[in-house]
């Protein structure tokens, strides 16, 4: 009997060591990305950009009911007067959306099946050829996998804009997405050299900026888009819904420390910052997986804001 117990304890100890070997570097790495938050004036200056975005819409690729509410996989389409478009996040294709939903079902006994609206290239239809740039809020697979079907339909011709952290810092949850993006049809786009107030801009896409958020993943990026009189802030997965942002609710301990290594001090700082900005008429924060929050500001594709 004794030897059985010894084997079981050895296996448990080895499993703990293996988990720590995986988790500790990821936790240390995500804590290296903490640039000072940009000043309000720097974000508002985007509204002064000549030839800024003229239309903004969202595309819902899939969704799933979870115990705490619905998780929606949403991409954002920014459009300029000349017809050029920029896409933020690509969602997942049909099969990957089902696989992802099955994974969440393992963690949430009340989770439903995936409802798939379509993949990003089906939903963009012929508009896909006008997408000349892409950006990601972060490189988790539910935000990047659709790049495969995007590329199949689009071919070469679009650039990807990534901050240095998003390009270079990966962990066990983002490596797959990073490789997928690096090997995709997307050509490397460039920000204007040197960030002003930590905001990265590209002359090709006036009126939008990227900021290295960190917190959720080392490459987590805030996309700021000047639209009409407001600056819309796309916060990715800093929180999974708008309510958590406004009620200052962190994710569960198991989520932030075991499944998705987060810098919880940084996510707390960002939650407070974004909540305060959202109180002002000049800013609205849009949370990646929150459909109601997105619909409050944007209309679905094809029924765009005019
Ligand atoms: Zn996500």
Features:
single chain; 306 residues; alpha/beta; Metallo-beta-lactamase, Chain A; eight-stranded mixed sheet; five-stranded mixed sheet; 37% helix; binds zinc ion
Structure, described:
There is one protein chain. The protein is an alpha/beta fold and about 300 residues long. It has a single domain (about 30-300), classed as Ribonuclease Z/Hydroxyacylglutathione hydrolase-like (Metallo-beta-lactamase, Chain A), CATH 3.60.15.10. The chain contains 12 helices and 13 strands. It has helices at about 1-30, 40-45, 95-105, 120-125, 140-145, 145-155, 165-170, 175-180, 240-245, 255-260, 265-280, 290-295; strands at about 55-65, 70-80, 85-90, 115, 130-135, 160, 185-190, 200, 210, 220-225, 230-235, 285, 300. Strands 1, 2, 3, 4, 5, 6, 7 and 13 form an 8-stranded mixed β-sheet that branches. A hairpin with a 2-residue loop joins strand 10 (about 220-225) and strand 11. The longest helix has 29 residues, at about 1-30. The chain is globular. The mean pLDDT is about 95.
Proper CATH architecture: 4-Layer Sandwich
CATH fold field value = Metallo-beta-lactamase, Chain A
C-alpha termini separation: 75 Å
- Helix content range of the residues, please? 25-40%
In a few lines, what is going on in this structure?
The protein has helices spanning 2-30, 40-44, 94-107, 120-124, 141-144, 147-154, 164-168, 175-182, 242-246, 253-259, 264-278, 291-297, and strands at residues 55-66, 69-79, 85-88, 114-116, 131-135, 159-160, 187-188, 199-201, 208-212, 221-227, 230-234, 283-286, 299-300.
